[in-house]
TrEMBL record:
Transmembrane segments: none annotated. Belongs to the PAL/histidase family. PANTHER family: HISTIDINE AMMONIA-LYASE. Keywords: Cytoplasm, Histidine metabolism, Lyase. There is a cross-link at residues 146-148 (5-imidazolinone (Ala-Gly)). This is Histidine ammonia-lyase. The lineage of its organism: Bacteria, Bacillati, Bacillota, Bacilli, Bacillales.
């Protein structure tokens, strides 16, 4: 992109925002000079190990259960090639291009730490593929989330060898052909390199990072949409008073309450205690407590991602200063598995309470609005079935929110006898977020319809901006029509976060 510098990789300072930028905006990456020196020094150590024949897992031995099989120096290179070819058996739909870009960036960042022993030219080719838009076809399924994301990552490595498949300029091509069209040449893997390319948590972390960024945007959107619903249901904002939340001082709860106060400033539709009712239902009154708790989940997830994106997750690891090669377990995805499962739960709850607000908007027994927000109740169904769809999505999320991390299954003849299922957790988290965006879109569409009845002119300036943004893509439903496309368009807009930015120009930056 114009006027955007390359993101510098050094294995230490990548942020989740950097990952999203490279993934979605085609920003280039580069490796720092200091990182290049560490990579070169570490490679020398590998070459010395090979020449002396010292027993080192995956360098002079086989893999997994074959770790006791000695590999001669003349077979060291073929061992790596065989590793990639045999392990490239992932299945399912290809990962999205943004997710693959994030994956390539994170793998390069991990390798740039200088603990993996990869050759500089191999790492350079990985960087060149990313910067030239050669995106390997990486099937989503097949990782146990321990021993690294072996099967999917092997499809990335195949392309560097001139094999496999890659997307290039909108075409799905054989890997070698994609490299050639981009002006690049494949490499011949040498000792340790195959293992260095596939032994890591970058599949689950790339999916997880992009999912987290979307979740963060949806959390802000949820506050905005809920504020609009509060107005349309003539809610009581006194429940969001600073005094209430100061005596239960979770930072996230305080932040959501502050968001709601600012979003509702200037509203002519909200009411006071006793004016219509003494207190609101929980789905309105407990917004800071519930949305705030989901924000606590996001805080936890961001902390874990910030560590993981700058971690060495290879095995074995080479420590230059100590002169040691240590076989460990940094490839085990348990931290990411827990984080992604927690993310699923926290975001599912945002959808759960949103669906309950939608029900209040469309159910005449729970509001003073026309049944199902229909302009001709009975003759026309109005928003009736939108609530059905919302209910279906939140129910599906309950299944997806089942923790993948509590499962394990032994592999490699019981040598790898406990695994994380972190990649499954990340994939399911991505599905949950997609569902949450649609549940929130449905609430927003219904709240905008309710505003037609209570008077959009009475909305607060911030929520009126949200209403206007919605109306820019979804006209009022004055008579029954299909709203599937409307829901999809609004969900996409919420995930992009641009509407949040527009509303924040009025409300001030939201937490």
């Amino acid at each position: 992109m114009e006027d955007v510098k390359a993101v510098l990789l050094d294995g230490e300072h990548v942020t989740v925002e950097d990952v999203a930028t490279v993934a979605h905006e085609n920003v280039a990456v580069a490796i720092s000079d200091a990182a290049w020196q560490r990579v070169k020094d570490c490679r020398k150590m590998v070459e010395e190990l090979v020449s002396t024949g010292k027993v080192v897992y995956g360098v002079t031995t086989g893999f997994g259960k074959f770790s006791d099989v000695h590999i001669s120096p003349e077979d060291a290179a073929q061992l790596q090639v065989n590793l990639i070819r045999s392990h490239a058996c992932a299945v399912g739909q290809p990962m999205s291009i943004p997710a693959v870009r994030a994956l390539m960036m994170l793998r390069a960042n991990a390798l740039s730490k200088g603990y993996s022993g990869i050759r500089p030219e191999t790492l350079q080719l990985l960087i060149d593929c990313l910067n030239h838009g050669v995106h390997p076809v990486v099937p989503e399924q097949g990782s146990l989330g321990a021993s690294g994301d072996l099967a999917p990552l092997s499809h990335l490595a195949l392309v560097l060898m001139g094999e496999g498949e890659a997307f290039y300029q909108g075409e799905r091509l054989p890997g070698g052909e994609a490299l050639k069209k981009a002006g690049l040449s494949p490499i011949q893997l040498q000792a340790k390199e195959g293992l260095a390319l596939i032994n890591g948590t970058q599949i689950m972390t790339s999916i997880g990072t992009l999912t987290y960024v979307k979740a963060k945007a949806l959390a802000k959107a949820a506050d905005m949409i809920a504020a609009l619903t509060v107005e349309c249901l003539r809610g009581i904002p006194e429940a969001f008073a600073e005094e209430v939340h100061r005596v239960r001082p979770y930072p996230e709860q305080l932040g959501v309450a502050s968001n709601l106060r600012r979003l509702l400033t200037g509203s002519k539709l909200t009411t006071e205690q006793g004016e219509i009712r003494v207190q609101d239902a929980y789905s309105l009154r407990c917004l800071p407590q519930v949305h705030g708790a989901s924000r606590q989940v996001l805080t936890y997830v961001e902390d874990k991602l910030s560590i993981e994106v700058n971690s060495a997750t290879d095995n074995p690891l080479l420590f230059l200063e100590e002169g040691k090669v240590i076989s460990g377990g940094n490839f085990h995805g348990q931290p990411m598995a827990f984080a992604m499962d927690f993310l699923k739960i926290g975001m599912s709850e945002l959808a759960n309470i949103s669906e309950r607000r939608t029900e209040r908007l469309v159910n005449p027994a729970l509001s003073e609005l026309p049944a199902f927000l229909s302009h001709q109740p009975g003759v026309e169904s109005g928003m009736m079935i939108l609530q059905y769809v919302s209910a279906s999505l939140v129910s599906e999320n309950k299944v997806l929110a089942h923790p993948a991390s509590v499962d394990s299954i032994p592999s490699s003849a019981n040598q790898e006898d406990h695994v994380s299922m972190g990649t499954t957790a990340a994939r399911h988290a991505a599905q949950v977020i997609d569902n949450v965006s649609k549940v929130l879109a449905i609430e927003l569409i219904c709240a905008a319809e309710a505003a037609e009845f209570v008077g959009a002119e009475g909305l607060a300036p911030a929520t009126r901006k949200l209403y206007d943004l919605l109306r820019g893509v979804v006209p009022p439903v004055l008579t029954d029509r299909s709203t599937s496309a409307d829901i999809e368009k609004v969900a996409a807009a919420l995930l992009q976060g641009k509407w949040v930015q527009e509303v924040e120009k009025i409300s001030g930056e939201l937490m």
